[in-house]
Amino acid sequence: MASLTCVRPTHSLLLRCGFPLPSRCFNHSSSLDRVLSIANRPMPRHTTTPRAVAKVGFSPARDELASPGDLEFEAPLKIVQYPDPKLRARNKRIATFDDNLKKIVHEMFDVMYKTDGIGLSAPQVGLNVHLMVFNPVGVRGEGEEIVLVNPRVNKYSKKLSLSNEGCLSFPGIYADVKRPESVKIDARDVNGTKFSVNLSGLPARVFQHEFDHLQGILFFERMTEEVLDSISGQLQALEMKYEEMTGFPSPETIVNRRRRKVAAGFGKL
Asked: Which pLDDT tens digit goes with each residue over 165-181?
């Protein structure tokens, strides 16, 4: 996106797994380690508190812990595109909060900004661990840089809203996705400190999109069959591109696709 302007609440948002979002709608935060300052603030009057649909299908108890090898990387990080199997691999919980993790976070923000995104999950850069970063403003030096390690869904609202989403792992593809309007999450920050926070509106949508990635769920699985049909040609083009680049058959195809069983909630159709 060349420019970012404030969007009215009724405006259809283009979401880039990271989404291009209005500048100057969030307060500036210069600290990478600072996770949501709103976590310790009173909830604003316009924020909807999530209804009690609690911890269904989102338990991390069975998730394996990441080893040092799982967190090895080479800079610069690169976006993994559909249908790369890393987007479907099982992701591991992070147990070590060190300088290497902070370097990964720094690199993830860097590639996110360079690709005009406002959110990014670790699997999208080839690291299969429970880590995401986002900045709803999408501009370096503006807004609030949010780091969520081992996030867990506590509650989410029953009220759903429809918006146009895209994904950095699906370049040029945008389509409508229905998701809960608000969500309460538990997570750790980059230093390992536990916290809980309520998110609503766009931050809630960005979180849900990225959280899906941590579960191996891709945004087209949240679409109606009619909407999915409208982008099937573009998905097939990405599958062909993968085969041409790797010399291997696509690990999945939209033609043979069967609706995957996804975690409860989060825009269940």
From this structure: 999 999 999 999 999 99
